[in-house]
Amino acid sequence: MVFRESEEIQELLASYVLGDLTPEEVASVNQLLDSHPELQTEVRCLQNTLGLIPLALPEAELPPTLGSRILQTASGRSTVRANRVGTRAKTRLGVIGTVAASVVVGFSFYSYRLHQQVVATQAELSQYKNAIALLRQPSNRLLALQGTSAIPAASGSLVVVPNAEAIVLTLQNLTPLPEGQVYRLWGVADGEKIYCGEFRPDSQGRALVKFPLDAEISDSSAVVITVEPSQRLSYPTGETVMTGSISL
Amino acid sequence: MMLSNQTDTEVFQSLRSGNLLALGILYERYGEVVYRVALRMLGNAQEAEDLTQEVFLSLLGSGIYDRRRGSMVVFLTTVTRSKAIDRHRQIRAQWQRIQRWFHSSSPESERALIDKVALKEMSCRVREAFAELSTTQQQVLEMAYYDGLSQSEISEELNMPIGTVKTHKRKGLLKLREILQDLVE
């Protein structure tokens, strides 16, 4: 093929990108691109132009839970990979993987929501970054938490981070509480309940909180979450809505 | 630096090293655009959701995004379109070429990322540019892009010679390329 005008080449490349050429024409454009590599830049620009066309579509409203579902599925896949690491540690890794994955997903939701609120405060984000850093500590202990018959759908994880003397709690499917009530986390040691901290979930029933780890609490073999009035009492009075015991 | 302030390429690399937060950030940046394309091409919300999920999960797979090949938004709209067309079992030769183009490994110069332009602003620009095309140019490009129709199918549907369809498509694309020059180069 002989091209006298650059315009002619442009048109040919446009049709090439649009997939409108015959196989013979495609072959000669491929030859042309081999002999004139600078034209590949033009092909790329045209490809980019084509790829931008859908931006002209009206903006759509994303289904509210889609992001969460994608992250959940993604974390499930990571767990599968973790399970393949080795046979000896398989079961153990699987359990840790699942708990860790759900914690990571918890953080992902948290991060996502923060951004939705137009990154309200940098402080909040750095807090969450700190929480992620905590999760990477080597000697962490993990507990899975499950709702009692009061809120059977509630679930989540608690990570004890001895190195940082902290507890990180991430929960989902909690029932939102009326004004004047809070959820409280208690460690159970020798049959006694020790206060760890209190929190309120967001409107979607999720919570991500960090509490200090006291020496007493680190001896706990189990934890419970109760619903309490917001004035501070040193012992639980309300219904136990979630429980978890140290299994790892 | 905080992940949310990083470029798409950095976030993508973070995802490749196993950080699922990075997936959340990419979703936050581009979930809407992917869903927008999926909804237009598949025509119903449920399928569009499934496809959006498929597109983002595909980012967990083998190394596919190469910024030297174009911006993340172009990459994602291209992948979305590919998968939507797959779903309709209408894979076109043109489409295979685009995929080859994304998978080929010939070196390209490093370029500024399009992602520094806010997506909303970019959508606005593309909308305005698209509105400058003639009605026929818009129509043939939409039929080819979203419905995956071939020249002869468009020709039949619009009762227009194939050569004319081809000319409208080409001129439409070249005009967009000219108006959007700074975004696509």
From TrEMBL, chain A:
Q: One Pfam family name from the record?
A: RskA_C
Question: Where's it found, cell-wise?
Answer: Cell membrane; Membrane
- Main localization is membrane
What stretches pass through the bilayer?
93-112
Keywords from the UniProt entry: Cell membrane, Membrane, Transmembrane, Transmembrane helix
The segment(s) forming the Anti-sigma K factor RskA C-terminal domain are 98-238
Q: How does it sit in the membrane?
A: Single-pass membrane protein
Membrane keyword on record: yes
Q: What is this protein called?
A: Regulator of SigK
